[in-house]
C-alpha cells in the first residue's frame, strides 16, 4: 500500500510539472512541420485535460483554499478548528492546482500544535519523492518571485 501511495504522489508531482511547463522554444526546432504538429497535439491534450478536470471537479467537493507553508519535509497551517495533538500521525490531502483535482496524500506526524497553528513533519523519506517535491516548491517559489517583480 505504501508503494502505491508513493507512486501516486510522485506521478502527481511529475504530471503537475508537465502541465505547468513553459512552452518549448520552437524557434530552434529544425523541422517546423513536426514542430507545428506537436504544438497542435499539445493544444488538443491541454483542452482534453482541462475538460477532464472540469468534469472531475463537478463530482468532487474540493475544499476551500487555505494558506499553508509547505516544505520538502514539512507542512504547516492555521486553523480555527480543533487541531491534532503533537505526536499524532495524520494523512494530509493537499490539492496543489485546480488544473489537477487530485490531492497529494501526505502521511505526517504532528510536531507542534498550539495557538491555532499546526506543523507536521512528512514521513515519506523516499529520495525520488523529495526530489519531485523540491522541484515543485522551487517552481512555485520562482513564479512567486516573478509575479512580485512584475508588480
Structure description:
There is one protein chain. The chain is α+β, with helices and mostly antiparallel strands and 151 residues long. The chain has a domain at 2-21 and 68-150: Beta Barrel (Thrombin, subunit H). It is 47% helix and 21% strand. The chain has helices at 2-20, 32-59, 127-150, and strands spanning 68-70, 74-78, 89-94, 104-114, 117-122. Strands 1-2-5-4-3 form a 5-stranded antiparallel beta sheet. A hairpin with a 3-residue loop joins strand 1 (68-70) and strand 2. Helix 1 (2-20) packs parallel to helix 3 (127-150). The longest helix is centred in the N-terminal third of the chain and has 28 residues, at 32-59. It is elongated and about 60 Å long. The mean pLDDT is 84.
Short structural description:
By secondary structure, this protein is an alpha+beta fold. The protein contains three helices and five strands, in the order H-H-E-E-E-E-E-H.
Q: Count the beta strands.
A: 5
Work out the oligomeric state of the chains in this entry.
single chain
In whole angstroms, the N-to-C terminal distance is 46 Å
The total count of helices amounts to: 3
> What's the average pLDDT?
84
CATH architecture of the domain at 2-21 and 68-150: Beta Barrel
- CATH homologous superfamily of the domain at 2-21 and 68-150 - what is it? predicted glycosyltransferase like domains
Secondary-structure-derived class: alpha+beta
List the helices and strands and how they pair.
Layout: H1 2-20, H2 32-59, E1 68-70, E2 74-78, E3 89-94, E4 104-114, E5 117-122, H3 127-150
Antiparallel strand pairs: 1-2, 2-5, 3-4, 4-5
Amino acid at each position: 500500500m505504501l508503494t502505491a501511495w508513493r507512486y501516486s504522489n510522485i506521478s502527481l508531482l511529475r504530471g503537475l510539472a508537465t502541465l505547468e511547463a513553459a512552452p518549448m522554444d520552437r524557434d530552434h526546432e529544425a523541422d517546423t512541420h513536426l514542430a507545428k504538429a506537436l504544438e497542435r497535439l499539445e493544444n488538443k491534450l491541454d483542452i482534453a485535460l482541462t475538460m477532464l478536470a472540469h468534469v472531475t471537479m463537478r463530482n468532487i467537493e474540493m475544499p476551500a483554499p487555505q494558506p499553508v507553508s509547505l516544505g520538502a519535509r514539512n507542512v504547516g497551517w492555521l486553523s480555527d478548528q480543533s487541531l491534532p495533538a503533537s505526536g499524532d500521525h495524520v494523512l494530509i490531502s493537499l490539492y496543489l492546482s485546480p488544473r489537477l483535482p487530485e490531492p497529494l496524500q501526505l502521511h505526517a506526524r504532528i510536531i507542534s500544535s498550539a495557538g491555532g497553528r499546526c506543523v507536521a513533519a512528512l514521513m515519506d523519506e523516499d529520495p525520488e519523492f523529495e526530489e519531485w517535491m523540491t522541484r515543485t516548491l522551487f517552481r512555485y517559489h520562482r513564479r512567486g518571485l516573478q509575479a512580485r517583480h512584475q508588480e
